[in-house]
Amino acid sequence: MRLYRQDLDALAVESSVVRAMDRAAIEDFGVPGAVLMENAGAAAAEVAAEMLAPGARVLVAAGAGNNAGDGFVIARHLANRGYGVDVLTAVEGASYSGDAATNFRVIEKMRLPVHTWKGPAPAAAGGAELIVDALLGTGLKGALRPPYPEMIAFVNSHGARVLAVDIPSGLDGDTGEIHTAVVRAARTVTFALPKKGLFIGEGPLWAGEVILADIGMPRAVYPAGKALPGP
């Protein structure tokens, strides 16, 4: 899994471009969505491990959609590396569908502690040295609905460093505007191509260091002039 850390603003595109790339990879080339989710989660776990001391505790904050699925993959990989992992979900486990549901069942069978947000954060969150923000992705439009403003406020007030998955939750991927509230990340690992909102508007103030992960999409789905660099 290749990670890129330089000159990313030149590769930045609108979120709709990456969604179209995702559809083309799945529908035209037959790359399973579960493979893309696995690659994204594995790459983000690699970045998370760079931010952690051996045996540290991690809290993965997961929303309701595919961004949560990435978070569950990250939780599995970090637990396999020997980190203590708790998962905090915005919805009950039965609400997940598709690839996110598949990866939720995996962490359940691994017996990772899973807590559903009920208001005050669980006591298990107190010892986390890193929070993985897998609450909301790039499809966000308009004001945030509960429980996301409260969960974002908890993440920001916790005191742990934060790794955002694809984009800090609450940030508009195209404009860099804030929708109600936004996670303040130390690092953001973004997938396939960087999103414009990470580099304009409020984006640079909240995204921290931006790292791009190659998640294995066929080169043919990349827009002209936006292909990832070679070795």
Q: Over all CA atoms, what is the radius of gyration? A: 16 Å
Name the overall outline: globular
Q: Look up the CATH topology.
A: Rossmann fold
Helix fraction by DSSP (H/I, runs of at least 4): 25-40%
Q: What's the number of helices?
A: 6
Quaternary structure type: single chain
CATH architecture term? 3-Layer(aba) Sandwich
Order of helices and strands: EHHEHEHEEHEEHE
Tell me, rounded to a whole number, the average pLDDT: 95
Terminal Cα separation, in Å?
12 Å
* Uncertain regions spanning at least 5 consecutive residues: none
Percentage beta strand: 15-25%
Instruction: Give the C-level CATH assignment.
Output: Alpha Beta
Q: Can you count the beta strands?
A: 8
Instruction: Find the structural class using helix and strand composition.
Output: alpha/beta
Description:
By secondary structure, this protein is an alpha/beta fold. It has one domain (3-218): 3-Layer(aba) Sandwich (Rossmann fold). The chain is built from 6 helices and 8 strands, in the order βααβαβαββαββαβ. The chain has helices at 15-27, 33-50, 66-80, 98-109, 148-158, 203-207; strands spanning 3-4, 57-62, 84-89, 114-116, 130-134, 161-165, 187-191, 209-213. Strands 1-8-7-6-5-2-3-4 form an 8-stranded mixed beta sheet, with helices on both faces. β2 (57-62), α3 (66-80) and β3 (84-89) form a beta-alpha-beta unit. α2 crosses α3 and α3 (66-80) runs parallel beside α4. The N and C termini lie close together (12 Å). The mean pLDDT is 95.
Secondary structure layout:
Elements: E1 3-4, H1 15-27, H2 33-50, E2 57-62, H3 66-80, E3 84-89, H4 98-109, E4 114-116, E5 130-134, H5 148-158, E6 161-165, E7 187-191, H6 203-207, E8 209-213
Parallel strand pairs: 2-3, 2-5, 3-4, 5-6, 6-7, 7-8
Antiparallel strand pairs: 1-8
Helix pairs in contact: 2-3, 3-4
